[in-house]
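Morning run. Coffee first, then this:
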Amino acid sequence: MKPRFVAYLAALALVVSLIAASAASPATSASGVTRQIALAGTGSFTTGAAPSDASTGPEFPAMESESETPDFNGVIPGSVVRGGGSGVAATTAKRAKSNPEVNTSFEGLNLFQHRFARSGNQFTLEPPDQGLCVGNGYVVEPVNTVVNVFNSAGVSVLPDNTSTNIVAGFPTDVNHAVDLNSFYGYAPAINRSTGVRAQFIADPSCLYDAATQRFFLVVLTLETRPNGSFTLQNHIDIAVSQTSNPTGTWNIYRVDVTNDGSNPTQPCPCLGDYPHIGADANGFYVTTNSYPWTAQISEFAGAQVYAFPKAQLAAGAASVRMVHFDTFGSVNVPSDAGSTQPGFTLWPAQSPGTSFDANAGGTEYFLSSNAADEATHPIAGIGGNYTSSQIVAWSLTNTSSLNTASPTLTLSNKVLAVSQYAIPPKSKQPGSGTLPDTQTPQGYCINDTKTKTIAGTGCWRLIFATPPKHDEKISRPDSNDTRMQQVMYANGKIWGALDTAVTVGGENRAGVAWYVVKPDVSTGSISASIVIQGIFGVESSDLSYPAIGVTQSGRGVIALTLSGDNDYPSAAYAAIDAIAGVGDVHVVAAGAATDDGFTSYKSQVGNPPRTRWGDYGAAAVDGNSIWIASEYIAHACDYATWGGRFFGASTGDNKLGTCAPSPGAAGTRTAFGNWSTRISKLTP
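And here it is:
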């Protein structure tokens, strides 16, 4: 695999209730390397200066690249659970003890807002990397390169910027959304007047820390040349609100990660991909996956861990200590690098409220998996079988020393035996593999040779200079790989989930493997055991991109996307606890149409196309409630409405493919895609 740089029916029957940890002794790392990170400036949710995008036709979209891996052809037994989709119900023996109540649910950011923020000086991007954090009555949602802040009813509390957001000659309603280039103090992603590119932002994550009453928002930023090519310099940008009100001013710290992961056998420059964040009582933590840009010797340089004193960040210190750990060679499992593996996607734990682990001088936890090439074949970058029966639990102990001049931290890990998991197949949606009809307008347009348009006969002329093959099919959205997804430390346990193949109804579908781990750091390094685990799927449906949120009492929710033979990509959830496991899957917002994004079509991205989805969902705990956010298709739009004035109609938008009723009105999509996000509050 390469850097990610830009299904449900009855309560779960346990596959395994208790599995012992592997016999391998914990692997321990030294105290890391300390360096100082200076305060770089401040930011706020105010749109920066930019020219108006005067164009009305589509731009060629931008895409985060990643290669495909082959499907798993074995059998992964799992539980069939009852779902809110159209699958066949089956009864199982266990049921989560809670039945979450949906308190609030609303559409979050969508691709129209993403593309036309900052007067349209943005790109169409897939997939919509999902961030979410909640606290003090505010809901902060960063997605790819835009952000919005809502109240608990789903109303944006940012200033209305419609009157100054001029696109194609009209003030354009993006529901107050602000581009992240503005927030972090950069020029527009692309200047639509000159074509000059600025910094490329990706992979946003955020959290609200109840202990300091601060919001934290983190992105990966890649430096570019004016023509858009990368300089290879990249940094993690950490923004911290100055108060408990996220609509005010934030302090910004920039951490250069270009050379992190360098070692004698593989020199950087490297890409610090897929950053994710967590916190304990003492520290704020960021992890990345380090990929050598040139890959002269190895394809993967290991997960990187960055630890910061949380109090210094919250106070806006002029300079903050940071301790950096490189996990290459840290896991006692063989790989093509020798007797050890690197860590891969160490997802740091977040905790509800202030329920941190004070043992061993303060401890932060992480989980990771090891079925990917990054773990098994870090040198070659290819050659694995993409399946494993292990996960890895990690601890960073003595985090209270982050508040001293000379931090002494210990990073250790323990390999745990679990039920087999494997790379999931692509998800299905209604019509997958068939020719697009008029309800899938971009795909239908690419194939069309008869519609009269302002560019001539054949809708394809609105998109391409030369004719494509006109043989596009409705796609199968990506179901992720097997990397660990969001991790929580709650009720004395570590909670995590990942995507996997699961055999239900006699076929392999995309499902979810989940884990509840009991850690012990009494010796200063980690020992751990599986409390409960499981794998679940839905007949005739697929589940992807799980994100777990768990309250202090141990009641949790898993956010999901559900799609399938009869279900358009939908936002869904399931309850989870450490006694009975996972309950029924419920669709909180049903998909309204097929995924019609540009990554679905080979004429746009090459053959075979890979329909990007995810790359991750999000969950945030606020008291006894859990907020979740997932990608889904919120709106239907037919071919005639998509084409509108470009097909000679007298109504509709003057921008192709937005499905807006008039120029400047809020649209539901762009010419090249139709993703949306769904934010929901549940009380388990």
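Residues 27-91+109-267+274-389+415-440+468-683 form one domain. Good start to the day.
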